[in-house]
Amino acid sequence: MDINVYQKLPEPEPNKEYKITKVESGKGQYGEYIRVTLEDNDKKQYSTALWIKDTVSAKSKAGAFAIALGTNPETWEGKTIKIISWTAKNREIQAIETSTTTKKGKWYKWKYKKNIMKKYTEYIGKEYL
Q1: Spatial separation of the C-alpha atoms in residues 18 and 12, rounded to whole Å
Q2: Which of 18, 27, 69, 115 is most buried by a 10 A CB count?
């Protein structure tokens, strides 16, 4: 038999942004849950348990996450959220779009650098490279 030990982390606070670093499921005394571990901009960790039922309220913890991020918790890790409201029976979060460079964007940057280098070599002559 394995004993699962976890460190009790504080609940997230309203009006702050967090990155979801870990999503894990388990079974506790009240039924099945999903534990979501979050990290703020200062690298401080927070955690909350989402108790899973067949139907959840839109203003519950699980409902707030499902509305903002979708109903599949396996896709939540790595996403950034902002806690709007975090009081009992009045939970609301917002998904934050993170700016990532797409493959196409990287290709255009590379192509641009390549063209600049080509023009530079034509200007000074290849014998100097």
Answers
A1: 8
A2: 18
Contact present, 77 and 62 (Cβ < 8 Å): no
Take residue 99 and report the two structure tokens written for it: 């700016």
Number of domains in the chain: 2
Note down pLDDT in tens along the chain; length 129 residues.
677 676 789 999 999 999 999 999 999 888 899 999 999 999 999 999 999 888 889 999 999 999 999 999 999 999 999 999 999 999 999 999 865 544 444 444 444 444 444 544 454 554 444
**Residue 64, token pair as written in the block:** 């707030």
Q: Can you give the chain as a three-state secondary structure string?
A: CCCCCCCCCCCCCCCCEEEEEEEEEEEECCEEEEEEEEECCCCCEEEEEEECCCCCCCCCHHHHHHHHHCCCHHHCCCCEEEEEEEECCEEEEEEECCCCCCHHHHHHHHHHHHHHHHHHHHHHCHHHC
* Longest pairwise C-alpha distance within the chain: 75
In this structure, the answer to whether residues 25 and 83 fall within a common structural domain is yes
Q: Which domain holds residue 115?
A: 100-129
Tokens of 22: 């870990």
